[in-house]
Amino acid sequence: MADLRLPTNAIVHPDKDRFLSLSEANPFEAMMARFDRAAELLDLEPGLYKVLRNPEKTVIVSIPVMMDSGDVEVFTGIRCIYNTSRGPAKGGIRFDQHVTVDEVKALAAWMTWKCAVVNIPFGGSKGGVICDPLTLSMGELERVTRRYTAGIIATLGPDSDVPAPDMNTNERVMAWLMDTYSMHVGHTVNAVTTGKPVAMGGSLGRREATGRGCMLATREALVQLGLPMKGARVVVQGFGNVGSIAAELLQAQGCRVIAIGDRTGGWYSKKGFDIAHAVRHVEQHGTLDGYNVGEAITNEALLELECDVLLPAALENVITTKNASRIQAKIVCEGANGPTTAGADALLDEKGIFVIPDILANAGGVTVSYFEWVQNRSGYYWTERMVNERLEEIMVNSFRDVLQLSKQHKVNMRTASYMLSINRVATVHKLRGIYA
Ligand code: NAD
Hints:
- The protein is α/β, with parallel strands linked by helices.
- The longest helix is centred in the last third of the chain and has 26 residues, at 384-409.
- 46% of the residues lie in helices and 18% in strands.
């Protein structure tokens, strides 16, 4: 069996100094640094390079909302369509106080590369509303969602731009979005969004898809490194949709999940947690606060634990130049989007840590979103088994495609996945030409 640690260890990051000098706070710069590196290795034509560095369109809308108090509040909504050369744009919508245009642009670009890396016929987009959803009532949340949808309606549609849930949005929000769009066009269009409730055309297996994809990518990485799955020590940061499901599925494969954590802090147990038990605690109490099984640890200490697999599944920018040299995992499986800064990439490479990059590791979610869109458009619904089998085929093949490229070019998995996806997008641009 191929020993991947040799080529990985041998990587001397040629852009180390440039990556280390980048701002660690700006996700668009972090995305561009990786893009530039892959573009250089691909020898991308200068014209195409310019085209792919820019989003096609960014729409910013004001969202006036009548609050429960009777006062009018105005929120800001953003939708960025990064690239649609391979198909309709695809990307989630997040509601968060800290959303910025640069963050939305970076996430839209990542969606473009993510869809291309798993070779599904979508482009990339992302949206956000600057608001604190925790302070909004259900009625206010619905009015924000419907007015935002009306504001960006010209970009939306099953053939143009298909949203999905992201941070602080869920099936409920997607149902309002789908209804608002359908009211505008005069008939029910369930393929305008994915991540809907199953009762209105959502796909079976979608809720578990991202965590399942992380489990499959981790399984492939362990095999490549010659490490057994049984007993592999796993540390998971974030215990929401992605983290808790990945943890549960990895445990089902024989791994030992030795640390879990969420926004309230972490828990460590050398002998491993019963994940179903921890999930029940979160269902009852909302968070892992008060779990009191094992030893309480901070989120910072959790990331630096000695383990086989570290699965960051919470936020961006948690592995940075400040802590990368203390990461002791053999594999980092990026469940979250952008958990590692560009500067940290170089440091993880030097340590020979095998990183499964976000655009590959967490692509299970968008893959089953694609299945949902296909099912909505054909009006024929698949069993959960069919969904999971097709997801596994795509995740495993994509992992192997990236791995092969990484060996061929002696680059890490992140650069290889950018090379694979940028090349796929560039090929379509070349075939289509520039409309004048
Ligand atoms: P979620 O809201 O269900 O869970 C987020 C988890 O992170 C929660 O347990 C929360 O407590 C924890 N968290 C928040 N702040 C934290 C902090 N400071 N320290 C430690 N933990 C913290 O979200 P999710 O859907 O699981 O998404 C997690 C990440 O995965 C995000 O980056 C998201 O963009 C990415 N992602 C999600 C999907 C999907 O299908 N849900 C798909 C692709 C990527």
